[in-house]
Amino acid sequence: MAEGFGVGLALLTWILLGCQEEARAEQELRFKPAPRDRPVRLFTEAELARYDGREEDQPIYLAVKGVVFDVTSGKEFYGKGAPYNALVGKDSTRGIAKMTLDPADLTHETTGLTEEELKSLDETFNNVYKAKYPIVGYTARRILNEDGSPNPNFKPEDQPHFTIKDEF
Ligand code: HEM
Fold first, then answer.
1. Tell me, what's the pLDDT at 128?
2. Which of 30, 56, 118, 143 counts the highest number of beta carbons within 10 A?
3. How far is the CA of 97 from the centre of ligand 1 (A)?
4. What is the pLDDT of residues 76-134, one digit of tens each?
């Protein structure tokens, strides 16, 4: 008799646990965010170079610190013939840090920048680019090391204003 009761209790516990598990799975399904249907892109230098404002109906992209921004809405700055057109279609981190349009500085390279330039770079990155323009991807260099191995310091979640714009 006691044995039967024990088996019954075990069975009940098993059923209850099963129900809980089912409810948890359902909850998870319900609250899981919809998958992004437009994944951010990985840009090689050649791909990024296509978005330099040359073509009237093409979007204009500019990378800073390996983050590719769609700056099309700032066409008066970045479009063909505009004052900052030299910055687009590439990663212009160094030029933005030093506030120069010298072609030698229009590169991702940051070695030798002063503390002040690095601070200015971060300010422009946060207060101009991240604040104003949608992120459309990352440069291959930001995600992969020169030897093709993944960069462990890549953290897309440090982009709080992460939005994706139509294009793809
Ligand atoms: C004579 C020198 C310059 C003057 C008078 C000047 C003036 C300006 C002005 C008035 C704005 C703000 C426009 C607005 O928000 O409506 C601006 C934005 C900006 N300037 Fe300059 N600028 C100069 C040189 C440079 C140089 C050499 C660089 C090189 C990187 C540069 C990079 C930028 C950037 C990145 C922005 C932000 C554009 C945006 O909002 O997308 N500027 N500049």
1. 95
2. 143
3. 12
4. 999 999 999 999 999 999 999 999 999 999 999 999 999 999 999 999 999 999 889 98
Centroid of chain to Cα 139: 9
**Residue 77 Cβ contacting ligand 1 at under 6 Å:** yes
Torsion, CA 87, CA 88, CA 89, CA 90, rounded to 10: 40
CB 74 within 8 A of CB 55: no
**Residue 102 DSSP SS3:** coil
Cβ of residue 131 lying under 6 Å from some atom of ligand 1: no
Instruction: Give me ligand 1 centre to Cα 89, in Å.
Output: 17
Q: Cβ–Cβ contacts within 10 Å for residue 115, how many?
A: 7
Residue 115 parent element (H or E): helix 115-124
